[in-house]
């Protein structure tokens, strides 16, 4: 059960505000340490690394979900319910009705404490190519929105679909990350507009309901 390309992109776009808080300041800061004619290349390298980490994480959890499905364990039901729950929590976060999704960020702190010093060693950037490994490391920064997207990769059905869904999610975050580094304020304002976030939240809730319905049809006795 793959999330689909455009819904995954929408998830990334809808989380633009949170991305600004988590990664935007870094992108804006280090892009200023390189010459203006290299700024775009630096941002692209950083985000290429970040998306690569998302794709790898999606492939890993997608493969895990496929294995669980193949051996026929009821754990797959729990995975699907988790994915639906996190999607609802993400929609509530976008509407600012409930911010519990952000509490999930504590789950990745242990790994991040090991990676953060490595990322720090790459700063300040001496050339745009150093932004690629920086992005690879920064892609593992604990993030509730990323974990929500990963839950869908978990039930995607394969490592390939899981990786692709996370790459699509990463592409959705790309416009705001580039806009931050290049000071494109109008795009940032559009992606953070309450109307856009409300529409995205509605679509995400509809996707959660659809996942629950499909799961109910498959697991409930006739």
TrEMBL record:
Tell me where the transmembrane regions lie: 6-30, 51-71, 77-95, 131-154, 166-184, 196-216
KW Ubl conjugation (keyword) present: no
Determine the domain of life of the protein's source. Answer: Bacteria
Pfam families for the chain: DsbD_2
Q: Where do the Urease accessory protein UreH-like transmembrane domain residues begin and end?
A: 8-207
Q: Give the UniProt keywords, A-Z.
A: Membrane, Transmembrane, Transmembrane helix
Quote the InterPro entries the UniProt record gives.
UreH-like_TM_dom
- Protein name, as recorded: Urease accessory protein UreH-like transmembrane domain-containing protein
